[in-house]
Amino acid sequence: MNKSLQEKKIGVLGGGQLGRMLFQDAISLDLSVHFLDPDANAPCSSIARNFSQGNFKDFEPVYQFGKDKDIITIEIEHVNLEALKKLEAEGVKVFPQPRVLEIIQDKGLQKEFYTQHNIPTAPFYLVENKAEALTYSAEFPFMQKLRKGGYDGRGVTPLRNGNDTEKAFDEPSVLEKFVDFEKELSVIVARNEKGEVAHFPVVEQEFNAEANLVEFLVTPARISAETEQKAIETARKVIENLEMVGLLAVELFLTPSGEILVNEMAPRPHNSGHHTIEACTTSQFEQHLRSICNLPLGSTTWLKPAVMINLLGDKGHEGNVYYQGMDEALGIEGVYPHIYGKKITKPFRKMGHITVMGNSVEDAIEKAKKIQTTVKVVAQ
Amino acid sequence: MNKSLQEKKIGVLGGGQLGRMLFQDAISLDLSVHFLDPDANAPCSSIARNFSQGNFKDFEPVYQFGKDKDIITIEIEHVNLEALKKLEAEGVKVFPQPRVLEIIQDKGLQKEFYTQHNIPTAPFYLVENKAEALTYSAEFPFMQKLRKGGYDGRGVTPLRNGNDTEKAFDEPSVLEKFVDFEKELSVIVARNEKGEVAHFPVVEQEFNAEANLVEFLVTPARISAETEQKAIETARKVIENLEMVGLLAVELFLTPSGEILVNEMAPRPHNSGHHTIEACTTSQFEQHLRSICNLPLGSTTWLKPAVMINLLGDKGHEGNVYYQGMDEALGIEGVYPHIYGKKITKPFRKMGHITVMGNSVEDAIEKAKKIQTTVKVVAQ
């Protein structure tokens, strides 16, 4: 007899905040979700019954963790591929597939993938080391991005002119032309084994330049219908050409001339989709679960305009976290805090997020600004 | 220094499906929730990190469980009151308060409470035993309800005429006049320590007579504005007169003449409030947490019309559960299954529920009827 969905074991590499929110939705379908994380105090550790400590970057812990699972997925892309390939060969379903993760772990392969499939992206060169990077100095400025290991703004440095050459990385990297953009957009798409594809509404990202993290995101994006269509088509083209199973966040630049360029992609639930928990018929976390379990994909229509703000650790604070002003924020209608369960705050550490729903985008933005001055993540 | 909300330990007596859904919402606020249940396989056991086995009806397990908690709450009302009183005396916050649970555990005290506070309810007599019950035979029919221990339709028997007297309970019980009612309604209210009270929209219950369980509930209820107002006022009057802290479901009869009578009450999240997870700005579970943590109560406005159906074990089936037709149901927009994680199905056992949202009450009802024919809870 086939195993029922509830009897299958789903292993998740990573036990951070994305895992926590995935776990919340998995409970509704009674999916058996197990986490692996190197940090014994990772956000999932304090809540999930099935949490194992082990480094998802190493072969042995991943292979041992995956052996008795039916489906393996990720909440962070920097995981051991050899173990995943072996598990896949032994019949475990691994979604996103290891061959997709291989492309995504390497920004060089990512860029080549876009080029091969005529997916618009900023012009680039691949270089092996600093010396090779400097041979392109006549064409500066570039953004130099390490091919491997970069995350949340790490592994990226601007090469504006000759003065920046000392900062250049001496590792295989991508030299990418600076993109003059009007807006940063994101489209989250999902694809199941049957090949069904669904996209969430386009969201507009606003970055905190100092922290180099998304600070504020607005949905629906304030863009033309034409741009919206182009952004959605681009994201769908990416997941279809990858033939990926799972959820994929595609980050895009909208240029002043109306071009859409792919910036990068993340094959998992994404910061730019957190508002879907409250603002869409199906959340990105449920959609991820539906896609890897080969269930029908859920409706992605939005119910109300929403703005999401990240709760970052305040600049001057390091220590036991305290969420100042949270009581007051909870008194405002349509305010949904998500606290990630990290005990220690540090400047700019992602400690949680708040989704704010409003009757219009403007209404939601106004409330979000109020929340930003009300709630502070401090050390007590 | 005061403990932050996230540092407080919240103990929940009971680890069933209500606990599971409470747990899902507690994660968003990073509340530390611990469960106590006599059944090692209770629905919370497979998901919650902090689950202890122990009987919540016994003094010692409750007292030991509660000693190191900051707040104790319940997801089932049949718990040991002596332990809760001792914990309360020792400074643990116990919500709902033991004195409220004492009233609610005893249907006789419940009826007397309504009478004392001029809250309309069906006429009744309190009797000590069968012999005393039979002294009222001239006034039959009555519904005889055990004062203590009844739950989900157990402990209730009709005394229609002399032929029913053999079935009469020989224990302290309430003889209640049959109520001729048009609709059964429910209003869920919440109250925090500050005395703030909030009510959810009125819901309309449809029972499955065979199973004696709510099968189908509709929100908003199809009632006049006047009836709605009366129902809400009655429910608010109940929680205010109880001076209870926590969530209270007040079940009501609407009589053909437009009277509202209180049927019974449950001081916890309730089957008739499950739709609030998707259909209201704040769910009943989050509202329960807000009330016992003395946070501002959340907005209770509804976003879309909703119908909730319980997933009961199919009549002919007992054994390892299988949710037949669930994939198909998940392909319908606005369908939200909640599976409670019970491994064994039995006829009429509550195995889960599905909330169906629609653009109108009629639309939602139509979809719900389709789901009822699509999804079956069977043994495999």
Oligomer: homodimer
* Unreliable residue runs of chain A: none
- Average pLDDT across residues of chain A? 95
Proportion of residues in extended strands of chain A:
25-35%
**Largest interface by residue count?**
A-B, 45 and 45 residues
How many strand elements of chain A? Answer: 21
Sum up the overall morphology of chain A in one term: globular
Largest sheet of chain A: 9 strands, antiparallel
* Rg calc of chain A: 21 Å
Distance between the termini of chain A: 55 Å
Helix content of chain A: 25-40%
Please identify the structural class of chain A as seen in this structure. Answer: alpha+beta
Helix count from the secondary structure assignment of chain A: 11
Describe this protein's structure.
Two copies of one chain form a homodimer. Chain A is of the alpha+beta class. Helices cover 27% and strands 29% of the residues of chain A. The first copy, chain A, contains eleven helices and 21 strands. Chain A has helices at 17-28, 59-66, 81-89, 98-105, 107-116, 130-134, 225-242, 276-279, 284-292, 326-330, 361-374; strands at residues 9-13, 32-37, 51-53, 71-74, 93-94, 124-127, 142-146, 156-159, 173-177, 183-191, 197-199, 203-208, 213-219, 246-254, 260-266, 306-312, 319-324, 335-339, 344-345, 350-357, 376-379. In chain A, β10 (183-191) and β11 (197-199) form a beta hairpin. The longest helix of chain A has 18 residues, at 225-242. Chain A is globular. The model of chain A has no long low-confidence stretch (mean pLDDT 95). At the A-B interface, α1, β17, α10 and β18 of A face α1, β17, α10 and β18 of B.
